[in-house]
Amino acid sequence: MEQNLLPKHIGIIMDGNGRWAKLKGLSRTAGHKMGAKTFRKIVQYCNKLGIGYLTVYAFSTENWKRPQEEIRAIIELLREYLIDAPNHVDENVQTKFIGNLSCFDDDIQQMIADCEKTSEHFSGLHLNIAINYGGRDEIIQAVKSLYQDIQNHQVRYEDIDEKLFSDYLYTKNQPDIDLIIRPSGEYRLSNFLIWQSAYAEYVFMNNILWPDFNEKCLDRALEEYAKRNRRFGGI
Ligand code: IPE
Ligand code: IPE
Ligand code: MG
After folding, report:
1. For 47, left (φ over 0), alpha (ψ -120 to 50), or beta?
2. Which end of the chain has less neighbouring CB within 10 Å, N or C?
3. Mean pLDDT computed over every residue of the chain
4. How are beta strands 9-13 and 53-57 bridged, if at all?
């Protein structure tokens, strides 16, 4: 596919792990484990395709409503991923974690900081992993820090515009989302990147659950995206 028809920034809502596990008679944890494998595969594929930015939704601010046991299992998968991260530095992926990270254990926060630091100058795919992320929560924290900067005379009220506001979001200096992909048959955003997706194209895939998502599914979403006529309000 021609490079100019590829999205600069893709967002993926990695949904359907629980249903996948249920269909197979497995525990929800087994579904999340398989989902984590799919995540690794799709990151590598996006990197190979030369996609600039990929943001994946791994855990939302609303997911704390789930049973303790499931939450613990997801956090354990995050820890395993972080422990393993130094083994894939050769992939050259620049990794960032977005969301309110302060609620995670100290060792996790430390490994996140290390992972971000190590990969900060890598030139491959820019990967954002959204954990304890909520679009509304992100906007509220942006408003709060902007307010503080105004109080401290670092920003003038008159200078507030969309660009300046965007610099207070986790995705500072990154392009807006071009394409949102959601497998599993749910047709909603579930509080994912609500500011950044204002003009995104949406590809909802109702015949696939995240653990079964593969390179071909991504190709299909990219083909669909390439056919869209993006007008951004113009004609
Ligand atoms: C997505 O899969 C993973 C997380 C939200 C952490 P789900 O766990 O939501 O899977 P379903 O929607 O119940 O099938
Ligand atoms: C969105 O999926 C969050 C993630 C994939 C991490 P959910 O499964 O939590 O969303 P809802 O509850 O179906 O809207
Ligand atoms: Mg779900």
Report:
1. alpha
2. C
3. 98
4. parallel
pLDDT at 202: 98
Q: Which of 205, 211, 185 is nearest to 27 (CA)?
A: 211
Contact 143, 112 (CB under 8 A): no
Q: Which atom belonging to ligand 1 lies closest to the Cα atom of 59?
A: 6
Which pTM value belongs to this model?
0.98
DSSP output for 167-190: TTSTTTTSPPP-EEEEETT--S-T
Tokens 């254990």, residue located: 105
Strand order in the sheet with 9-13: 94-98, 126-130, 53-57, 9-13, 179-183, 201-205
Amino acid at 134: G
133-156 pLDDT, tens digit per residue, is: 999 999 999 999 999 999 999 999
Mutate to test the pocket of ligand 2, among 22, 78, 190 (most ligand atoms within 8 A of CB): 190
| Residues that are catalytic | 15, 63
Alpha-carbon gap, residue 226 to 210, rounded angstroms: 22
Residues in Cβ contact with 92 at an 8 Å cutoff, skipping those fewer than 6 apart = 47, 122, 123, 124, 125
Q: In the predicted model, is pLDDT for residue 12 greater than 90?
A: yes
| CB of 186 sitting under 6 A from ligand 2 | yes
Residue among 103, 80, 104 nearest 29 (CA): 80
